[in-house]
Amino acid sequence: MVFPRSLLRRLKTPGAPALVGLALIPLALIAAYAIANFRPLWLLGVFALAGSLVLLTRIEIAALFLPLVIFLPDIGRDLPGPFALFVHDLMILALFGLYAIRQIASRRPVLQIDRRAAFWLLAFIAIAGASLIKAAMLDRAIFLAGVKDWIRLVELTLMTVALAGMIQTRKQARRLLLALCLAGAAAVGVALWAYVHDSEALYRVMNLKRATVQIVGLRYRMVSSMGTAAHTGVCFATLAALATALVRRGARRWTVIFGLALIVLCLVCVVLTFSKGTWVALALAMLVLWTSGRLPRAWIFAVGALAVTGALALMALWGSSLDPGVLATDFFRLSRSSAEIRLARWASVQNVMLREPLLGVGYNCYAYVYGRFAVDSGVMYDYGHPHNMFIDVLTGSGIAGLVMFLGFCSRVLGLARRLTVERGGLAGLGRACYLALLIYFGASLFNSFLFKAGRAGMLLFAVIGLVLALDRMRSEIEDDSDADRVAQQRELERPVAEDQSLGT
């Protein structure tokens, strides 16, 4: 397969990407109509046309549309069928398809990521798939649920590979990060608007889930525009971490102002989610950065903004007819009861390890068979979500899966940490991604964001794709410097050798 290179050169003019972007707007409207009215063939046609436009220009443009899909509310309906497709699924498949076609046509490798990270991730996918065989033996319905989540784990891996290969320069990495921040800012605006106005029509149109927390007999609304309050909290906390890359020396004034405003608004939303796991994750991330000497100055202001926001929220509650002492007592009582439920589900892991230690009960299937392994004999066959991603991995794919998963997480964190000491633009981008990963994995100790093709999972793998792309750039810079050093050494050695030959 050979691309029409002359056509590619013509389309790679400065104005061509803008024209292609405008052409994609009516295609996006047609796609929304197709989703809402069950027109899968229309949707496939739209993606074929959009893919052709992007493929003939610059494929990197496709990556800039990914943040819109990540933060896009659930408008319309899912496609029919046992494995219902979401817009997230279609975007990931289209993105990887375009990238793979370009790489194969250009005779370049598709997999361009760190080898160790690729090994750990692919090994984890293989073990997770093998663990589903046991799920099929337990229950066919459980097996189908696990297979759907496993397929989306594969999809997120494909998205990571595509992103890591598409992003070739630091400028492209900054563009993607800026696109994430802009799309996230729109999502924050929608979340705050829905929270303040409490519009039933807005919730119904955007398919937003309304969540509440009960304190002293009264219910308070929670910001939960990303599916649940926990997912909303980790998404906005991760977005705040990425926004720290905008607040850097030498940046334009509007960029710094936008970054600081986005950090503050994200933290306001995090406070209003009442997600204690995300609150703890922020503190853990700050502690790690402080002990390692990598605490960005922007986060000093961010922590101050979080403290002020929390104080204002408490003052708003205390300003009502509630007794502050009763409020605090009831809040800790609710926290204790929530902790007791989670501890009981975590303690039930020992029963899973005694029966299925190697491969577990099936990838993401522990919640559906919790009643068979619960330490509390009164628990029936019930949904026992453990609220811990690492325990989900351990119970679902066993010790083998947990080892591979932890190896992948450690490798990605190590690469991100290494980027924080690099000179130039890589350090700022690497520090933001490192902070985002710390927050995400810290929040995963108290909630489970298993690898579904949802907003939280897509945002995590988008950050991982950025880290792997930046690490490849760092490796290429080191290889180039080594090659230059070897060439200089040979130039120095050559005259010496010639003089010696002449002397003899």
What does it look like?
The chain is globular, with a radius of gyration of 25 Å. The chain has 20 helices and 2 strands. The N terminus and C terminus are likely disordered. Strand 1 and strand 2 form a beta hairpin. With 504 residues, it is mainly alpha-helical. Helix 9 packs across helix 11. The chain starts with a helix and ends with a helix. It has a two-stranded antiparallel ribbon with strand order 1-2.
| Biggest β-sheet strands, sense, barrel | 2 strands, antiparallel
Placed side by side, the strands forming the largest sheet appear as 1-2
Mean pLDDT: 75
N- and C-termini, Cα separation: 57 Å
Radius of gyration, whole Å: 25 Å
Percentage of residues assigned to helices = over 70%
Count of individual beta strands: 2
| Poorly predicted parts | 1-13, 76-82, 318-336, 496-504
Give the number of helices.
20
User: What would you call the shape?
Assistant: globular
Helix- and strand-based class? mainly alpha
Strand-residue proportion:
under 5%
Would you list the SSEs in sequence order as H and E? Answer: HHHHHHHHHHEEHHHHHHHHHH
